[in-house]
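Chain and conformation:
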Amino acid sequence: MTAPETTSAGPNRLVVFDCDGTLVDGQGAVISAMEVAFAQYGLAAPEASLIRRSVGLSLPQAVRRLAPDSDDDAVREIVGAYKAAFRAARAAGELSEPLFTGMAELLGALVDAGYALGVATGKSDRGLEHCLDTHGIAHLFTTLQTADRHPSKPHPAMLQAALDDALARPEHAVMIGDTAYDMLMAAEAGVRAVGVAWGYHEAEELIEAGAEYVAGTVADLRTYLLP
């Protein structure tokens, strides 16, 4: 099973997923790397709840939110320390980003139904590639968009690039995510937005930001997408 070929002959249907908090549970890895980065710079680590709420933003934007008094040089150093901590955990085999239960089956069912799949994430290219390869699902995706090549969410650039890659129109696409940033990005791109309740923002926030539906479980999401 591989991602379907896109064609300009008809309206391709596209489902774009966020990664952390939507496809995979990367909470522990993110919090640990951020705590290490702040410690190396000599700052007290932010509360875990604040770190979780920053997930979905690009890394520099997340650090600016967590350390609002830091200047640009400090932000760059903390970002560098975070990336180094993440790489060290990956090299040591200590990086845990498990797929949420039922997600692999949902992705396969969507591909079988003829949907093109994409990812729009605040991760780096390298981080996303490692994550998808680890779970053996990289071949299912037609388009991969990361913070390395785009402004931070909720800017619509990632979704606009995904639509171009998949030859899909906004009205034939849906963004699946766990944060308000994902929902707002979808609105900016003219794409439907569906939230998931197992990630980092509350269902009420997702609805307020534009979600047409918030799935409580992966099974709920499958039923909504493939009735």
Remarks:
- The radius of gyration is 17 Å.
- The CA atoms of residues 68 and 77 lie 14 Å apart.
- The mean pLDDT is 92.
